[in-house]
Amino acid sequence: MSKQSSAYGTPAGDTDFRKTRNLDEYAAKAKEREAKEREEGKARYEAKMAGKRYYKPLEGNESLTSARAATLDLSSQVGKTQIIPAGSGVGRRGRGAGFYCEACDWTVKDNLQWVEHINSVSHLRNVGQTGEVRRATVDDVLARIGSAWERRLAEKDAERQVTSTDLKERLALREKEEEEERDRRRKKKRDLADKKRVADAEAAAALEASRKDYGEDVRVEGEHDEDDMMAMMGFSGFGTTKNLHDRTTRFIASSASHPPAARPQGKDSTTRRPSTPPPQPRSRFARALPHPSTSTASLCFTLIMTSAGSTTLLRRQLKQMQTSTDIPGISCGLVSDDNIYQWEVMLMISDDVKFYGGNCHFSLAPSIRSNTGIANTPGGNFRAFLTFPHEYPLLPPKLTFQDPVPYHPNVYENGDLCISILHPPEEDRYGYESAAERWSPVQSPETILLSVISLFAGPNDESPANVEAAREWRDQQAGVSKNFSRRVRQCVRASLGED
């Protein structure tokens, strides 16, 4: 009989591939486990009969309980899906849906039960802690105070470094931020210009392709609408006042250098018109300009129509405000009957307006009024001039308070009012106001004056015109001082003629 060998020709040794176990060792472990279970069952039974709760007995190798050094993670499982064994939804023993404790093989459903479980004696015993804390000694207390003091000193040093930044560094940082903002805006403008250039090129290419297909008689929708409208109305184009002025100047100079020919006098005159028209003046865009007399007349007509339109609108609005009974606390009229562009207004502040009204902030107690005979101070009456530009309503008016000037965070010392709706309709270079907050032609003197009265009830201290008044108003709101109310009281009394 041949000797057994492996597939590689080497002699085979032990061919038993199954794992073998020491039966005596595992039998001893089983007996030990059964003994512990019997002891634990007996202890549980005795605790139950005594009306107490069973806790795992100490083995002598446990450590003292100390405070947790890390924060409990109670929100990491929010919105997540867990895969759990079948049948684990009943009871708390075993792994289930919720907070699972591996040391205790225990599952709870909410965070309150989880916190109670990890602080319980049974859990502390299972993780190897006694549930008792070590009594702190004097050295421990001193060490804790020292660590807290060092932490506080470190925080103060950090604050000192932040607050001790040099003014030049702050200015340099601000300049850098502004430069970055300007670069961002320039990049945005370049991107928009590039997009517009690409769109115009595509539109021109499409128009050229259509003209190749259909000939030169191609009319793009909306391309000649403005020209048709101008031809129907009888003038050559829309433009700003500056452009009209420049063209008029060039036309007048051209007419002075090329005077018209003298008209024939009498029936038998031999003077005749030239067979060819005189050379037309040309603009810098190489286009023929209209006759000087026509352009001058068009300019005068435009200016007259603009002035006449604003005059008619202001007269109608003034008459409406003088006859309306729905605008309390506002009286208006003309400073001079021959100037519709300058109004004189009187703002009579209501008594319930804080600071500037009478019965809200400066009121006396009923007993004091009855004993002394002193009546409440009414609200202030402030006079102002409302000056309109000739371009109204395209440009906003200007409101200037007369003496006594109200002591207000949004009123300059010379009486000029600072309010968003009276700022020109252009982009704010500081980025504080949006275009919707500035002047719009839909505004009227009525809405302007109502906004001014509401400004007395709620000053805007974020961008004040009178910095000192804004600072005292903030101190008044915080209860630090009452200088603001005192100075406003003097201003209100002066407006009523009491001082």
Automatic annotation (TrEMBL):
Biased composition (Low complexity): 253-264
A GO cellular component entry from the record: spliceosomal complex
Keywords: Metal-binding, Nucleus, Transferase, Ubl conjugation pathway, Zinc, Zinc-finger
Catalytic residues of the enzyme: C418 (glycyl thioester intermediate)
Classification via SUPFAM superfamilies: beta-beta-alpha zinc fingers (SSF57667), UBC-like (SSF54495)
InterPro entries according to UniProt: Matrin/U1-like-C_Znf_C2H2 (IPR003604), SNRNP27 (IPR013957), Snu23 (IPR040107), UBC (IPR000608), UBQ-conjugating_AS (IPR023313), UBQ-conjugating_enzyme/RWD (IPR016135), Znf_C2H2_jaz (IPR022755), Znf_C2H2_sf (IPR036236)
Domain UBC core: 309-497
Pfam families: SNRNP27, UQ_con, zf-C2H2_jaz
Compositionally biased region (Basic and acidic residues): 15-24
Entry annotated with the keyword Nuclease: no
Region spans: Disordered: 1-24, 173-199, 252-290
MF (Gene Ontology): nucleic acid binding; transferase activity; zinc ion binding
GO biological process, one term: mRNA splicing, via spliceosome
Listed name of the protein: Ubiquitin-conjugating enzyme e2
